[in-house]
Fold this sequence. Notes:
By secondary structure, the chain is mainly beta.
Amino acid sequence: MxxxxxxxxxxxxxxxxxxxxxxxxxxxxxxxxxxxxRPQYHFSPESNWMNDPNGLLFHDGRYHLFYQYYPDSxxxxxxxxxxxxxxxxxxxxxxxxxxxPDSLGYIFSGSAVMDYQNTSGLGTExxxxxxxxxxxxxxxxxxxxxxxxxxxxxxxSLDQGSTWVKYKxxxxxxxxxxxxxxxxxxxxxxxxxxxxxxxxxxxxxxIYQSANLIDWKFSSSFGENMGAHGGVWECPDLFSLTTQxxxxxxxxxxxxNPGGPNGGSATQYFVGDFDGISFSTEQKEVKWLEYGxxxxxxxxxNGAPVDQRILLGWMxxxxxxxxxxxxxxxxxxxxPRKLSLVRQTDQFVLMQEPMIESAILGEKIDMNPEExxxxxxxxxxxxxxxxxxDLSHEFSLTLxxxxxxxxxxxxxxxxxxxxxxxxxxPNSFSDKFAPEVQTATYEPESRLTSLTVFTDQSSVxxxxxNGRYVFTNQIFPNKPYDMLRIGPDNQxxxxxxxxxxxxxxxx
Length: 507
């Protein structure tokens, strides 16, 4: 109100010819991050197009988020690296664009590291370089029908990512004649004292080694005849996790488009071993990071605090990413998730724990299951809903308003989970957005399990069984959901609570 009064006062003082620019400028400041469907606690750019998270790096108390960005439109175009920083993975501050296209091509996905030992010679040990490793995409060569239009380049920053210099002898890895040769993820491998780079090469992954981030040597390949191959492999990641029993395993995640378990884009993962040269696994079945339709291209943070492996994904799907009904921005990131690895019976399973700063959580509201059978008003449009589910009973959850609804259910007879967003809001922008119900089979470890549901203005993220099963979905209702129903009776759910979540963009 104070800002509005100030504007009205100024209007009395300025000539009429200056009124329009003043109104547009000041009202944009007031309304930004208040638009319909605008996420209130997920990261989204101020305006225009965003996709894959890139260069996820924790350094000197700040989490860096670089991302695929096109600053001139809300649809995909010549790729840049956008940039934001956060002290807590919840509150974000926008930074200037980090990397721009140049004569070698657009700046596609990649990663970033701190070269603390100055192995590259691009900084000093007193002022180590932040080094970005990314894919150049040469559109001119692609239009000519060439296969070698993607190469790998590097850039460095000596001021913690504020300004960047591209390496003078880019590219550092030439294309061997592979059409899809991209998305390098780099990390330091202490046992071999080498930098390791994993990228995708068509239908498989390739691993490289380097002592200095500049001179790379091919080590091995993985995956030609393993995993899902319903689409192009993209955005690999390779990292280790230790189970509660002290067993260390390596995880290789691969995004794939199309070919996901419920259509379009998705991410698969392999659990195995890595010796600094090659990755191997005895895994036979395909493992999916999640079963929702809107978590893609996720990678993990380099340099995260001890014992934390943090994943962040792009909350969209290439089936409809360029036509979702939002403006002046398009796309958001998922909630960050802390990953852990557990052994369940005879297999290893990745668990995802959603991360959110407690400062933006409101006061928890306990709810009576009997009051929810017919549905009741609840602050669910921007909240976290938590409960315990008795898997011996049929269970259903509905988030809804007067005319739109989002449904989740668990059937003990078929051991199947179902997501139905067909009536969640307008979806005529794409016939691929909600063509059918999403499904996944669950294997209960015990009779009781947990369900945590994060809702924002245009998304629902469900974490079942402490994050063993995850569903991330966009929704675009005409008005926020304000009703909650749990059924079909009061037998399945207990310990139900709702906690409102404050906006990270507004007080």
